[in-house]
Amino acid sequence: MTGPFEQTEEVRAALDAGAPVVALESTIITHGMPWPRNFETARQVEDEIRAHGGTPATMAVIKGVLHIGLTEGQMTDLAKARDVAKLSRADLPVAMATRTTGATTVAATMIAARLAGIEVFATGGIGGVHRGAERSFDVSADLRELSETPVTVVAAGAKAILDLPKTWEMLETLGVPVIAVGQDVLPAFWSRGSEHPAPLRLDRPADIAAAHVMRGAMGLPGGQLVANPIPEADEIPAETLAPIIEQALSEAIRDGVSAKAVTPYLLSRIFELTEGRSLEANIALVLNNARLAAGIAREIGILRKEIAGATDAPL
């Protein structure tokens, strides 16, 4: 790439070879958990992608440079840093122009992935419509990004702290395919099931990859959201979480928490109220998503090569 972008040698070699690459966000490092658990988890997720045939590309802005993949030293420094900016679509160019250091959200990671030519991104859960959005108009930029940027995002649904019905409704309005994996209902982040039927269901990475490639071939903008349920052994049932989430939301209102501070506050409070169980579930679902994303990226690569071979074949 040209401009203020840098790739690790590992990522550059994989992209040049047409090998599967999976994008990863960095807010899980800076805003998701404390040192050294954040560093250990980030490395574990990268290793999971490598173990399943892919190359990880963790995104972050360091002193104004957008990094496509991080070295161990860069990841360590980011994991130890404090007061790191949280970058979405609006903040990303400003941070780069002013040589700021910042961690990428889902929206910013999708943008970085597109710039690098990476088609698959694994995360925990997407942002969406916040509860009370009819008063606050608090809606994550992740939803619009999914409708505009051609990246397949593998997540355990939307974060359970959100207004899930409104989130799914907005994605439908924006024309974003929401694909449940292996079940007919949408997962709810820490919980496998929910009361929301899945608009689409695909069970094989090859089929998800084919849908991604077909969407591009048709010239349709945007990506697709792959809602991958957390492994059964790691989930927290929705009925267990419901009163805990309500308590955390009430406390956030009481404490006047708003805007970008809401999600970190709620996740921290839920961690406390579940005695750490929510964090363990979060790590399990991210690893699960990384595995599936590597498989989808691999299948997209196979399809691309088949299409290229068919195009080059003599008539």
Description:
There is one protein chain. The protein is α/β, with parallel strands linked by helices. Helices cover 49% and strands 13% of the residues. The protein contains 13 helices and eleven strands. Strands 1, 2, 3, 4, 5, 6, 7, 8, 9, 10 and 11 form an eleven-stranded mixed beta sheet that branches. The chain is globular, with a radius of gyration of 19 Å. The chain starts with a strand and ends with a helix. The model has no long low-confidence stretch (mean pLDDT 95). Its EC number is 4.2.1.70. Its cofactor is Mn(2+).
Mean pLDDT over all positions? 95
Major sheet: size, sense and barrel closure? 11 strands, mixed
State the total count of DSSP E strands.
Answer: 11
Q: Report helical residue fraction.
A: 40-55%
What is the H level of CATH, i.e. the homologous superfamily of the largest domain? Indigoidine synthase domain
- Write the CATH architecture name of the largest domain: 3-Layer(aba) Sandwich
Given helix and strand content, the structural type is: alpha/beta
Cα distance, first to last residue? 35 Å
* Rough outline: globular
Query: Which fold name fills CATH's third level, the topology of the largest domain?
Result: Indigoidine synthase fold
Order of helices and strands: EHEHHEEHEHEHEHHEHEEHEHHH
- Low-pLDDT regions: none
Strand content: 5-15%
Radius of gyration: 19 Å
Our count of domains comes out at: 2
Any idea of the CATH class of the largest domain? Alpha Beta
Keywords: Glycosidase, Hydrolase, Lyase, Manganese, Metal-binding
GO cellular component, one term: cytoplasm
Protein name: Pseudouridine-5'-phosphate glycosidase
GO molecular function: hydrolase activity, acting on glycosyl bonds; metal ion binding; pseudouridylate synthase activity
